[in-house]
From TrEMBL:
Residues 1-13 have a biased composition (Polar residues). It comes from Nesterenkonia alkaliphila. GO terms for molecular function: DNA-binding transcription factor activity; transcription cis-regulatory region binding. Keywords: DNA-binding, Transcription, Transcription regulation. The keyword Transmembrane does not apply. This is TetR family transcriptional regulator. It comes from the Bacteria.
Length: 199
């Protein structure tokens, strides 16, 4: 079964998005969610450095509204990634193969999350980085426990091994050219799977 947590691209450019209806009292939460969804699509299609003005236009809000909800690009990307992590957590919980599900979904999200991959994997001391590392760490512990219980992992594999694997997978993929990403992901996953999975 294939699980996808990223939406299909609409195909519409920001210039083709129709005018936004009046959202009334719900404008704040709805605008925030619209910005997250627009950022997700733009990160996928245009990359991490897409202009924030383009994201605002796709969400059908002004740039002032964008900055009321998100202080900067990393803040917006963090919100996208946190939402994705929640979906990954649900998918892992429901999976009979939690290790494979986790790394499959993580690989699929690298293109939209590349703007913050280094925050998660590096030594950055910003609040965003610390919060994300904590969330990823908790999820990796969940994956390790579930995969050990299911018999998916070798006995000697520890949580810190899977934490290292996240960096080993995500950092090269985040920096790879889009046309090379699939081949690079396959190569890295083949190595990681050989280390961690039972034969």
């Amino acid at each position: 079964m294939s699980i996808s947590v990223t939406p299909q691209r609409s195909g519409a450019s920001p210039e083709q998005v129709p005018a936004k209806p009046n959202r009334g009292p719900l404008a704040g939460p709805m605008n925030r969610q619209a910005l997250i969804e627009a950022a997700r699509e733009e990160f996928i299609s245009e990359g991490a450095q897409v202009p924030l003005s383009r994201i605002a236009k796709r969400a059908r809000v002004g740039q002032g509204t964008l900055y009321r909800h998100f202080a900067d690009r990393a803040d917006l990307a963090t919100a996208v990634f946190e939402q994705n992590l929640h979906q990954v957590e649900e998918a892992v919980s429901a999976s009979a193969t939690p290790y494979r599900t986790f790394f499959d979904l993580l690989t699929a999200q690298v293109s939209e999350a590349s703007v913050i991959i280094e925050l998660v994997a590096g030594e950055d001391s910003t609040p965003q980085a610390g919060r994300l590392r904590g969330q990823v760490g908790r999820l990796v512990r969940q994956v390790h426990e579930a995969a050990r219980t299911s018999g998916e992992l070798k006995e000697e594999v520890e949580t810190r091994d899977l934490q290292a694997a996240v960096s080993m997978l995500c950092l090269p993929l985040a920096k790879a050219q889009a046309v090379q990403r699939e081949e690079e992901a396959y190569r890295i996953r083949r190595i990681l799977d050989a280390w961690f999975l039972r034969g």
